Amino acid sequence: MGLREDLTAMRLEREAKRNPEWVRIMHKATDDLGDSGIRDRVVKPGTKAPEFILSNARGEMRNSRDWLAKGPLVLCFYRGVW
Prior knowledge:
The structure is a single chain. By secondary structure, this protein is mainly alpha-helical. It has one domain (3-68). Helices cover 43% and strands 7% of the residues. Strands 1-2 form a two-stranded antiparallel ribbon. A hairpin with a 5-residue loop joins strand 1 (53-55) and strand 2. The protein starts with a helix and ends in a 14-residue tail after the last helix.
């Protein structure tokens, strides 16, 4: 299986354990975002990000420049629990 298939299988497994109404709401929210045209306005993969300073999960300020000095940087945002 490839990554896309693995992710789809994981999503379907999780959705099967959730309240069907919640799943419907999550899919509608995703569809609404797609219909809004947001995909045309997001930063594209490979685009160089500006330097930034953000707080980590412990409230400590972190500078992207310091992390980039150690190698490539991947930034993830946690959107919370549905």
